[in-house]
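User: Quick sanity check before I run a bigger batch. Here is a single chain. Can you write out its predicted 3D structure?
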Amino acid sequence: MPHVSGLFRHPVKGFTPEPVDHVLVQADGRIAGDRVLAFRFASAVDPEARDGLDSWPKSRGLALMAFPSLARLRLRFDPEALRVEIREGAAVLAEEGLDDAGRRRLEEAVTAFVAASPEYALLENDGVLPLRLVGDGRTSRFQDRPRGFVSVHGEASVRAVDAMVTASVDDRRFRSNIVVAGTAPWEELTWTGRVRIGAVSFVPQAPIGRCAAIMANPDSGERDARLLRVLTTRFDQDEPTLGMLLLPEPAEPTGAGGGEIRLGDEVVVER
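Assistant: Done. Predicted structure follows.
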């Protein structure tokens, strides 16, 4: 029986995934506590407008796509105290709150880390420095797409990719909110109609096109597998794709969708 085998939030865009035993799907189609903070370039601290919505393009901030070394950092966020801890191995690079002084120290620590990484030259591009930590720590807003969405993929799809390369490939590379066990490889790409996960009913929106972020090893921060090419050549995809975007179906009579999802919840596809 298909069921939820993994749940993740990513408090800071591009940094450590946070495995959890339950998530709250908001009526706006985002996971509470997911991507509530982001390190943005100096020239991109305000959102852009796209289709009438706020857009935060990942190309204008720190993201694994261009800065794979970020995967080496371990980040912990306390949503109650609004406090961020960033480690590299056993070393604490910074542990600060989100007041102005705390944000500056977090920005300085992350800038120093990137400056010592293989991606240091990117900091010299126009409009990059100083890096700015934006977000209130509560509002989920820094997803790759203006509409937000909940992301899901099947364990079996990731195992199929893992079998094609010598590097270790696990769910963390794909940074989805929900991982589903008990489905066939790539089955989630065929979902249409309605998908019920636990008590939440979703409408599938589109398969997830992938970027260079998936090539970054989630432990070492090295690009150790050409997974974009693997997806297109070994699985005959026109574009590198893994996973599905979902939106909660509005509930009647309130019109508000969303709800809680827990590990082990059943997944039912209603075609």
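The helical segments are 100-115, 155-162, 227-233.

User: Great, the batch can go ahead then.
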